[in-house]
Amino acid sequence: MPYYRSVGEVPHKRHTQFRRPDGGLYAEELMGQEGFSSDSSLLYHRHAPTAIVSADIHEAPPARRSPNLPLKPRHLRTHKLDAGPADAVLGRHPLMANDDVRIGYAIADRPSPLYRDAVGDELLYVEDGRVAVETTFGTLEAGSGDYVIIPTSVVHRIVPLNGPARLLTIEANGHIGPPKRYLSVRGQFLEHAPYCERDLRGPSSPLLVDETDVEVLVKHRAGWTRHVYAHHPFDVVGWDGCLYPWAFSIHDFEPITGRVHQPPPVHQTFEGPNFVVCSFVPRKVDYHPLAIPVPYNHHNVDSDEMMFYTGGNYEARRGSGIEQGSISLHPSGFTHGPQPGAVERALGAEAFDELAVMVDTFRPLDLCDPALAVEDTAYAWTWNR
Asked: Which residues form the Homogentisate 1,2-dioxygenase N-terminal domain (predicted)?
Protein backbone atom coordinates (compact mmCIF):
# COMPACT_ATOMS: atom_id res chain seq x y z
CA MET A 1 0.00 0.00 0.00
CA PRO A 2 1.20 3.53 -0.66
CA TYR A 3 0.74 4.86 2.88
CA TYR A 4 0.83 3.99 6.57
CA ARG A 5 -2.24 3.34 8.73
CA SER A 6 -2.73 2.53 12.39
CA VAL A 7 -5.99 0.97 13.61
CA GLY A 8 -7.01 -0.03 17.14
CA GLU A 9 -4.53 -0.43 19.97
CA VAL A 10 -0.78 -0.74 19.33
CA PRO A 11 2.19 -0.20 21.68
CA HIS A 12 4.53 2.77 21.40
CA LYS A 13 7.43 0.63 20.08
CA ARG A 14 7.44 -2.40 17.81
CA HIS A 15 8.34 -5.79 19.26
CA THR A 16 8.00 -4.67 22.87
CA GLN A 17 5.76 -6.01 25.63
CA PHE A 18 2.09 -5.28 24.99
CA ARG A 19 -0.18 -6.86 27.57
CA ARG A 20 -3.82 -7.84 27.71
CA PRO A 21 -6.04 -6.60 30.58
CA ASP A 22 -5.44 -9.94 32.32
CA GLY A 23 -1.68 -9.39 32.25
CA GLY A 24 -0.83 -11.84 29.46
CA LEU A 25 0.99 -10.75 26.32
CA TYR A 26 -0.78 -10.06 23.06
CA ALA A 27 0.66 -12.20 20.25
CA GLU A 28 2.44 -10.29 17.47
CA GLU A 29 2.04 -11.29 13.83
CA LEU A 30 4.20 -9.58 11.23
CA MET A 31 2.60 -9.97 7.80
CA GLY A 32 5.00 -8.87 5.08
CA GLN A 33 5.85 -9.25 1.42
CA GLU A 34 9.14 -10.32 -0.18
CA GLY A 35 10.53 -11.74 3.01
CA PHE A 36 11.29 -8.78 5.28
CA SER A 37 12.14 -6.47 2.37
CA SER A 38 8.85 -4.87 1.33
CA ASP A 39 5.51 -3.63 2.69
CA SER A 40 4.33 -5.15 5.96
CA SER A 41 1.93 -4.70 8.86
CA LEU A 42 2.20 -5.74 12.49
CA LEU A 43 -0.96 -7.22 14.03
CA TYR A 44 -1.65 -7.88 17.73
CA HIS A 45 -3.78 -10.96 18.47
CA ARG A 46 -5.50 -11.97 21.67
CA HIS A 47 -4.43 -15.56 20.95
CA ALA A 48 -1.58 -17.21 19.09
CA PRO A 49 -2.27 -16.94 15.33
CA THR A 50 -0.23 -20.14 14.87
CA ALA A 51 -2.52 -22.42 16.89
CA ILE A 52 -4.25 -24.92 14.58
CA VAL A 53 -5.91 -28.09 15.83
CA SER A 54 -6.32 -29.92 12.52
CA ALA A 55 -5.45 -29.78 8.81
CA ASP A 56 -7.16 -31.70 6.01
CA ILE A 57 -6.95 -31.71 2.22
CA HIS A 58 -9.84 -29.78 0.70
CA GLU A 59 -10.93 -30.52 -2.85
CA ALA A 60 -10.43 -27.41 -4.97
CA PRO A 61 -13.39 -26.00 -6.91
CA PRO A 62 -13.27 -27.27 -10.52
CA ALA A 63 -11.61 -24.96 -13.04
CA ARG A 64 -10.84 -26.94 -16.21
CA ARG A 65 -9.05 -24.80 -18.82
CA SER A 66 -9.12 -25.04 -22.61
CA PRO A 67 -6.96 -23.03 -25.03
CA ASN A 68 -8.67 -20.41 -27.19
CA LEU A 69 -8.88 -22.68 -30.22
CA PRO A 70 -9.74 -21.86 -32.87
CA LEU A 71 -8.26 -18.43 -32.13
CA LYS A 72 -11.05 -15.87 -32.28
CA PRO A 73 -12.62 -13.02 -30.30
CA ARG A 74 -15.15 -14.15 -27.71
CA HIS A 75 -18.20 -12.64 -26.04
CA LEU A 76 -19.46 -14.04 -22.72
CA ARG A 77 -22.80 -13.15 -21.14
CA THR A 78 -22.14 -13.36 -17.39
CA HIS A 79 -25.77 -12.70 -16.50
CA LYS A 80 -26.62 -16.08 -18.00
CA LEU A 81 -24.41 -17.90 -15.47
CA ASP A 82 -26.09 -20.01 -12.80
CA ALA A 83 -27.24 -17.51 -10.16
CA GLY A 84 -27.03 -19.69 -7.10
CA PRO A 85 -27.41 -20.36 -4.33
CA ALA A 86 -23.70 -19.61 -3.95
CA ASP A 87 -21.04 -17.70 -2.05
CA ALA A 88 -18.28 -15.49 -3.48
CA VAL A 89 -15.42 -17.94 -2.84
CA LEU A 90 -16.58 -21.51 -3.47
CA GLY A 91 -19.38 -20.37 -5.80
CA ARG A 92 -17.37 -18.19 -8.18
CA HIS A 93 -17.45 -19.22 -11.83
CA PRO A 94 -13.95 -19.49 -13.36
CA LEU A 95 -14.00 -17.86 -16.79
CA MET A 96 -10.44 -17.33 -18.05
CA ALA A 97 -6.99 -18.17 -16.72
CA ASN A 98 -3.30 -18.43 -17.43
CA ASP A 99 -0.31 -19.08 -15.18
CA ASP A 100 -0.36 -15.49 -13.87
CA VAL A 101 -4.01 -14.70 -13.23
CA ARG A 102 -7.48 -16.24 -12.96
CA ILE A 103 -10.61 -14.23 -13.83
CA GLY A 104 -14.00 -15.28 -12.51
CA TYR A 105 -17.51 -14.11 -11.75
CA ALA A 106 -19.67 -14.67 -8.69
CA ILE A 107 -23.34 -14.13 -7.89
CA ALA A 108 -23.27 -14.36 -4.10
CA ASP A 109 -26.37 -14.59 -1.93
CA ARG A 110 -24.75 -15.96 1.25
CA PRO A 111 -21.56 -15.46 3.29
CA SER A 112 -18.45 -17.23 2.08
CA PRO A 113 -16.38 -19.46 4.33
CA LEU A 114 -13.32 -17.95 5.96
CA TYR A 115 -10.69 -18.05 3.23
CA ARG A 116 -7.00 -17.32 2.71
CA ASP A 117 -5.45 -17.06 -0.76
CA ALA A 118 -1.80 -17.91 -0.14
CA VAL A 119 -0.95 -17.81 -3.88
CA GLY A 120 -1.44 -14.09 -4.51
CA ASP A 121 -3.52 -10.96 -4.06
CA GLU A 122 -7.18 -10.93 -5.05
CA LEU A 123 -9.01 -8.02 -6.67
CA LEU A 124 -12.81 -7.89 -6.46
CA TYR A 125 -14.93 -5.56 -8.55
CA VAL A 126 -18.53 -5.11 -7.39
CA GLU A 127 -20.81 -4.91 -10.41
CA ASP A 128 -24.02 -4.79 -8.41
CA GLY A 129 -25.13 -5.04 -4.78
CA ARG A 130 -23.18 -4.49 -1.59
CA VAL A 131 -20.78 -6.68 0.36
CA ALA A 132 -18.90 -6.59 3.64
CA VAL A 133 -15.38 -7.98 3.32
CA GLU A 134 -14.53 -9.10 6.86
CA THR A 135 -10.80 -9.57 7.50
CA THR A 136 -8.22 -9.90 10.25
CA PHE A 137 -7.64 -6.14 9.76
CA GLY A 138 -11.32 -5.19 10.14
CA THR A 139 -14.26 -4.80 7.77
CA LEU A 140 -14.49 -3.05 4.40
CA GLU A 141 -17.93 -2.34 2.95
CA ALA A 142 -18.11 -2.10 -0.83
CA GLY A 143 -20.86 -1.36 -3.32
CA SER A 144 -21.44 -1.00 -7.02
CA GLY A 145 -18.29 0.28 -8.75
CA ASP A 146 -15.91 -0.52 -5.91
CA TYR A 147 -12.63 -2.35 -6.31
CA VAL A 148 -11.38 -4.26 -3.25
CA ILE A 149 -7.79 -5.50 -3.02
CA ILE A 150 -7.18 -8.34 -0.56
CA PRO A 151 -3.45 -8.96 -0.04
CA THR A 152 -1.98 -12.44 -0.17
CA SER A 153 -2.81 -14.65 2.83
CA VAL A 154 -5.21 -12.26 4.55
CA VAL A 155 -7.96 -14.35 6.16
CA HIS A 156 -11.31 -12.98 5.05
CA ARG A 157 -14.89 -13.75 4.17
CA ILE A 158 -17.27 -11.99 1.79
CA VAL A 159 -20.77 -11.26 3.12
CA PRO A 160 -23.53 -9.98 0.78
CA LEU A 161 -25.59 -7.16 2.29
CA ASN A 162 -29.28 -6.61 1.54
CA GLY A 163 -29.52 -9.18 -1.26
CA PRO A 164 -27.31 -10.87 -3.84
CA ALA A 165 -24.11 -9.24 -5.10
CA ARG A 166 -22.43 -9.64 -8.49
CA LEU A 167 -18.63 -9.64 -8.47
CA LEU A 168 -15.83 -9.85 -11.02
CA THR A 169 -12.93 -11.68 -9.36
CA ILE A 170 -9.24 -11.41 -10.32
CA GLU A 171 -6.82 -13.81 -8.59
CA ALA A 172 -3.12 -13.09 -9.12
CA ASN A 173 -0.03 -15.25 -8.74
CA GLY A 174 1.64 -12.35 -6.94
CA HIS A 175 0.82 -8.83 -5.84
CA ILE A 176 -1.58 -6.21 -7.23
CA GLY A 177 -1.13 -2.48 -6.67
CA PRO A 178 -1.09 0.96 -8.24
CA PRO A 179 1.17 1.33 -11.30
CA LYS A 180 4.70 2.28 -10.28
CA ARG A 181 4.65 5.30 -12.60
CA TYR A 182 1.93 6.84 -10.41
CA LEU A 183 4.10 6.67 -7.26
CA SER A 184 7.11 8.52 -5.90
CA VAL A 185 10.18 6.58 -4.78
CA ARG A 186 8.68 6.69 -1.26
CA GLY A 187 5.25 5.46 -2.37
CA GLN A 188 3.24 8.68 -2.49
CA PHE A 189 0.82 9.18 -5.38
CA LEU A 190 2.23 11.74 -7.81
CA GLU A 191 0.33 14.73 -9.21
CA HIS A 192 -0.26 13.11 -12.61
CA ALA A 193 -1.88 9.99 -11.08
CA PRO A 194 -5.62 9.59 -11.85
CA TYR A 195 -6.37 8.83 -8.18
CA CYS A 196 -4.67 9.38 -4.84
CA GLU A 197 -4.63 8.48 -1.14
CA ARG A 198 -7.81 10.48 -0.46
CA ASP A 199 -9.74 8.11 -2.72
CA LEU A 200 -8.70 4.94 -0.87
CA ARG A 201 -10.49 3.27 2.04
CA GLY A 202 -9.03 0.86 4.57
CA PRO A 203 -10.51 -0.85 7.64
CA SER A 204 -11.18 1.73 10.37
CA SER A 205 -11.60 -0.45 13.45
CA PRO A 206 -10.75 -3.99 14.60
CA LEU A 207 -13.23 -6.81 14.10
CA LEU A 208 -13.15 -8.84 17.32
CA VAL A 209 -14.75 -12.30 17.24
CA ASP A 210 -14.48 -14.77 20.15
CA GLU A 211 -14.95 -18.28 18.79
CA THR A 212 -13.02 -21.54 19.02
CA ASP A 213 -12.37 -24.37 16.54
CA VAL A 214 -12.81 -22.15 13.48
CA GLU A 215 -12.42 -23.49 9.91
CA VAL A 216 -10.37 -21.55 7.36
CA LEU A 217 -9.94 -22.69 3.74
CA VAL A 218 -6.48 -22.03 2.32
CA LYS A 219 -5.64 -21.94 -1.37
CA HIS A 220 -1.91 -22.52 -1.73
CA ARG A 221 0.57 -23.52 -4.41
CA ALA A 222 0.04 -27.24 -3.89
CA GLY A 223 -3.77 -27.20 -3.72
CA TRP A 224 -6.38 -26.42 -1.05
CA THR A 225 -6.28 -27.21 2.68
CA ARG A 226 -8.86 -26.86 5.46
CA HIS A 227 -7.30 -25.62 8.69
CA VAL A 228 -9.13 -25.56 12.01
CA TYR A 229 -7.82 -22.80 14.27
CA ALA A 230 -8.00 -23.02 18.04
CA HIS A 231 -9.28 -19.41 18.11
CA HIS A 232 -10.95 -17.17 15.56
CA PRO A 233 -8.42 -15.28 13.36
CA PHE A 234 -10.50 -12.11 13.86
CA ASP A 235 -9.08 -11.52 17.35
CA VAL A 236 -6.80 -8.61 16.42
CA VAL A 237 -7.00 -5.65 18.85
CA GLY A 238 -4.85 -3.39 16.69
CA TRP A 239 -2.41 -3.20 13.80
CA ASP A 240 -0.24 -0.74 11.92
CA GLY A 241 1.74 -0.68 8.69
CA CYS A 242 1.43 -0.34 4.93
CA LEU A 243 -0.05 -3.76 4.06
CA TYR A 244 -3.81 -4.18 4.45
CA PRO A 245 -6.99 -4.70 2.41
CA TRP A 246 -8.31 -1.55 0.76
CA ALA A 247 -11.06 -0.30 -1.50
CA PHE A 248 -11.26 2.23 -4.32
CA SER A 249 -14.31 3.31 -6.33
CA ILE A 250 -14.11 3.34 -10.11
CA HIS A 251 -16.20 6.53 -9.87
CA ASP A 252 -13.21 8.27 -8.25
CA PHE A 253 -10.92 7.48 -11.19
CA GLU A 254 -10.13 10.75 -12.98
CA PRO A 255 -9.90 10.11 -16.74
CA ILE A 256 -6.98 11.44 -18.77
CA THR A 257 -8.08 12.86 -22.13
CA GLY A 258 -6.43 14.62 -25.08
CA ARG A 259 -6.99 16.34 -28.41
CA VAL A 260 -6.90 12.95 -30.17
CA HIS A 261 -7.74 9.46 -28.97
CA GLN A 262 -5.66 8.34 -26.00
CA PRO A 263 -4.35 4.73 -25.80
CA PRO A 264 -5.46 2.31 -23.04
CA PRO A 265 -2.43 2.92 -20.72
CA VAL A 266 -4.03 6.25 -19.70
CA HIS A 267 -6.85 4.19 -18.16
CA GLN A 268 -4.52 1.93 -16.15
CA THR A 269 -5.61 1.54 -12.53
CA PHE A 270 -3.61 -1.41 -11.17
CA GLU A 271 -0.77 -3.70 -12.18
CA GLY A 272 -0.08 -7.33 -11.30
CA PRO A 273 2.43 -9.96 -12.39
CA ASN A 274 2.23 -9.99 -16.20
CA PHE A 275 -1.13 -8.19 -16.34
CA VAL A 276 -2.69 -4.74 -15.91
CA VAL A 277 -6.18 -3.56 -14.95
CA CYS A 278 -7.73 -0.46 -16.56
CA SER A 279 -10.90 1.55 -15.81
CA PHE A 280 -12.94 3.10 -18.60
CA VAL A 281 -15.21 5.74 -17.08
CA PRO A 282 -17.59 8.49 -18.30
CA ARG A 283 -15.45 11.28 -19.75
CA LYS A 284 -15.17 14.09 -22.25
CA VAL A 285 -13.58 12.83 -25.44
CA ASP A 286 -11.08 14.08 -27.97
CA TYR A 287 -11.34 17.77 -28.88
CA HIS A 288 -9.27 18.09 -32.06
CA PRO A 289 -11.72 19.34 -34.74
CA LEU A 290 -11.02 16.25 -36.86
CA ALA A 291 -10.72 13.77 -33.96
CA ILE A 292 -12.12 10.23 -34.17
CA PRO A 293 -13.23 9.54 -30.59
CA VAL A 294 -13.55 5.74 -30.72
CA PRO A 295 -10.47 3.48 -30.71
CA TYR A 296 -8.61 2.81 -33.92
CA ASN A 297 -8.13 -0.79 -35.04
CA HIS A 298 -5.31 -2.19 -32.99
CA HIS A 299 -3.34 -5.38 -32.62
CA ASN A 300 -1.64 -5.76 -29.25
CA VAL A 301 0.88 -8.37 -30.31
CA ASP A 302 2.01 -9.13 -26.75
CA SER A 303 -1.29 -9.31 -24.86
CA ASP A 304 -4.81 -10.68 -24.62
CA GLU A 305 -7.48 -8.07 -23.80
CA MET A 306 -10.46 -8.92 -21.58
CA MET A 307 -13.12 -6.22 -21.19
CA PHE A 308 -15.94 -6.36 -18.63
CA TYR A 309 -18.80 -4.00 -19.53
CA THR A 310 -20.40 -2.78 -16.34
CA GLY A 311 -22.41 0.35 -17.13
CA GLY A 312 -23.37 3.00 -19.66
CA ASN A 313 -22.98 2.50 -23.41
CA TYR A 314 -19.66 1.35 -24.83
CA GLU A 315 -19.77 3.24 -28.13
CA ALA A 316 -17.13 1.22 -29.99
CA ARG A 317 -19.04 -2.04 -29.46
CA ARG A 318 -22.54 -0.84 -30.34
CA GLY A 319 -24.27 -3.36 -32.61
CA SER A 320 -22.15 -6.32 -31.48
CA GLY A 321 -24.53 -7.71 -28.85
CA ILE A 322 -22.49 -6.37 -25.93
CA GLU A 323 -24.71 -5.60 -22.90
CA GLN A 324 -24.53 -5.04 -19.15
CA GLY A 325 -22.35 -7.80 -17.65
CA SER A 326 -20.81 -8.82 -20.97
CA ILE A 327 -17.17 -9.85 -21.21
CA SER A 328 -15.23 -9.65 -24.45
CA LEU A 329 -11.91 -11.38 -25.09
CA HIS A 330 -9.77 -10.04 -27.93
CA PRO A 331 -6.70 -12.28 -28.07
CA SER A 332 -3.20 -11.64 -29.33
CA GLY A 333 -3.08 -12.78 -32.95
CA PHE A 334 -6.35 -10.99 -33.76
CA THR A 335 -6.68 -7.36 -34.87
CA HIS A 336 -9.68 -5.76 -33.21
CA GLY A 337 -11.35 -2.38 -33.30
CA PRO A 338 -14.68 -0.57 -33.40
CA GLN A 339 -17.76 -2.24 -34.81
CA PRO A 340 -18.88 -1.29 -38.34
CA GLY A 341 -20.45 2.16 -38.32
CA ALA A 342 -19.03 3.13 -34.90
CA VAL A 343 -16.40 5.49 -36.32
CA GLU A 344 -18.86 7.60 -38.31
CA ARG A 345 -21.41 7.62 -35.46
CA ALA A 346 -18.80 8.91 -33.00
CA LEU A 347 -17.68 11.90 -35.06
CA GLY A 348 -18.48 15.11 -33.23
CA ALA A 349 -19.20 13.39 -29.91
CA GLU A 350 -18.22 15.46 -26.88
CA ALA A 351 -18.50 12.81 -24.15
CA PHE A 352 -18.93 9.07 -23.67
CA ASP A 353 -21.04 7.53 -20.91
CA GLU A 354 -19.38 4.15 -20.43
CA LEU A 355 -18.09 2.04 -17.58
CA ALA A 356 -15.83 -0.95 -18.13
CA VAL A 357 -12.99 -2.88 -16.46
CA MET A 358 -10.22 -4.16 -18.71
CA VAL A 359 -7.58 -6.78 -17.93
CA ASP A 360 -4.67 -7.07 -20.36
CA THR A 361 -2.54 -10.18 -19.84
CA PHE A 362 0.89 -10.81 -21.32
CA ARG A 363 0.33 -14.54 -21.65
CA PRO A 364 -2.62 -16.08 -23.52
CA LEU A 365 -5.84 -16.62 -21.59
CA ASP A 366 -7.41 -20.07 -21.59
CA LEU A 367 -11.18 -20.46 -21.38
CA CYS A 368 -12.90 -22.32 -18.54
CA ASP A 369 -16.07 -24.40 -18.89
CA PRO A 370 -18.50 -21.79 -17.44
CA ALA A 371 -17.25 -19.26 -20.02
CA LEU A 372 -17.89 -21.60 -22.93
CA ALA A 373 -21.38 -22.32 -21.55
CA VAL A 374 -22.43 -18.65 -21.85
CA GLU A 375 -20.54 -17.70 -25.01
CA ASP A 376 -22.27 -15.68 -27.73
CA THR A 377 -20.85 -17.69 -30.63
CA ALA A 378 -21.93 -15.11 -33.23
CA TYR A 379 -19.70 -12.36 -31.84
CA ALA A 380 -16.58 -13.17 -33.88
CA TRP A 381 -18.42 -12.44 -37.12
CA THR A 382 -20.00 -9.11 -36.12
CA TRP A 383 -17.34 -7.06 -37.93
CA ASN A 384 -18.43 -8.66 -41.22
CA ARG A 385 -21.74 -6.81 -41.45
From this structure: 113-248
pLDDT digits (tens, 9 = 90+) for 181-226: 999 999 999 999 999 999 999 999 999 999 999 999 999 999 999 9
Separation between Cα atoms, residue 264 and residue 123, nearest integer Å:
20
How far apart CA 131 and CA 108 sit, in angstroms, is 9
- Count the Cβ atoms, other than its own, within 10 Å of residue 82: 12
Mean of pLDDT over the chain: 95
Three-state DSSP at 10 gives coil
Q: How far apart are CA 144 and CA 80, in angstroms?
A: 19
Check if the beta carbon of residue 286 is closer than 8 Å to that of residue 294.
Answer: no
Find all residues with CB under 8 Å of 221, minimum gap 6, and list them.
118, 119
Strand partners, 224: 58, 219
Angle at 149 (CA atoms; ends 284, 60), nearest 5 degrees: 125
- Quick check: 365 and 73 in contact, CB under 8 A? no
SS3 content of the chain, % helix, strand, coil (to 5): 10, 45, 50
d(CA 317, CA 369): 25
Contacts 24+ apart (CB under 8 A), 337-341: 337/295, 337/296, 337/297, 337/298, 337/383, 338/294, 338/295, 338/297, 339/382, 339/383, 340/383, 340/385
Contact (CB, 8 A) for 250 and 199: no
Strand partners, 237: none
d(CA 328, CA 321): 10
Q: How many CB atoms lie within 10 A of CB 138?
A: 21
* Sign for the pseudo-dihedral over CA of 297, 301, 304, 310: negative
Q: How confident is the model at residue 314 (pLDDT cuts 50, 70, 90)?
A: confident
pLDDT tens across 16-38, in order?
A: 999 999 999 999 999 999 999 99
